[in-house]
Amino acid sequence: MPVSRTLAVNYTQDEKVFDVKYQNQFLFGDAILVAPVESTKQTAEVYLPAGDWYRLSSGEKFAGGLAVLVAAPLTDLPVFIKPGGIVPMQHVIQSTNEQGDGILELHIWYGKEANSFVYYEDDGSSYAYQKGAYYKRKISFDPAKKQISLAAVEGSFISKYTKIALVLHGFEGKTKGKMKKIDVNGKALEMTDNAVSFPNSSETIKIDF
User: Fold this and answer.
1) Are 208 and 180 within 8 A, CB to CB?
2) Inter-CA distances, 199 with 91, 120, 146, 184, Å
3) Does the 4-81 domain belong in CATH 2.60.40.1180?
4) For residue 91, which of 99, 81, 101 has the smallest C-alpha distance?
5) Which residues, 6 or more positions from 46, have their beta carbon under 8 angstroms from its beta carbon?
6) Where in the chain is the domain with CATH 2.60.40.1180?
7) What is the pTM of this model?
8) Helix (H) or strand (E) holding 33
9) Which residue, of 93, 154, 164, 203, has the fewest CB within 10 Å?
10) pLDDT digit of tens for each residue in the chain (209 aa)?
């Protein structure tokens, strides 16, 4: 399935996604919906398919199956995330050749259903990945177990990120003020609140909330 695709690919039975008003909206990856807006407009009517959606910039939660009118200044393109969405990010760099600050931000939006995401990294310039020089790990969110887990790393590539910052969205009231614990390969790490950062270990990481 294409990374970037029309809403009709995922929501074929929803007649509203075929409305010409929403023809420029598209899905990016498993969790992101993007609504392009003309540069001369400050608001946009966005159709959100069934299920809840979080606005990326504000964290505001919207019910799906409806068209919503949202602010759309030039500095804030309407982008929405599905509950359970797992999206890795990094601080701004000017090109892929830059090393950056070594921090991988792992953003997770609370949802009632479990979800998983496979994070992948390689040198981006050679075929070394064909010989195992890649970095891959499965990241899982399980609301029933109240746990976020990062599987052990596969591959021999050394990630450029030395630290992971876990950023939670929509978890208010779910964590009782702070995370419970982080285990790296069965060994507990100290933590204070939901602004959690920890070493990017290649071992299994489990976070209880």
Assistant:
1) yes
2) 17, 17, 21, 9
3) yes
4) 101
5) 22, 25, 35, 67, 68, 69, 70, 78, 80
6) 4-81, 86-208
7) 0.91
8) strand 32-34
9) 93
10) 899 999 999 999 999 999 999 999 999 999 999 999 999 999 999 999 999 999 999 999 999 999 999 999 999 999 999 999 999 999 999 987 788 899 999 999 999 999 999 999 999 899 999 999 999 999 999 999 999 999 999 999 999 999 999 999 998 776 655 677 888 877 787 665 555 788 899 999 998 88
Tell me if 108 sits within 8 A of 116, measured CB to CB: no
Determine the Cα–Cα distance for residues 165 and 40; give it in Å rounded to an integer. 36
Q: Using an 8 Å Cβ cutoff, are 52 and 64 in contact? A: yes
Measured CA to CA, the distance from residue 93 to residue 50 in angstroms comes to 35
Contact status, residue 202 vs residue 153, Cβ threshold 8 Å: yes
Chain length of the chain: 209
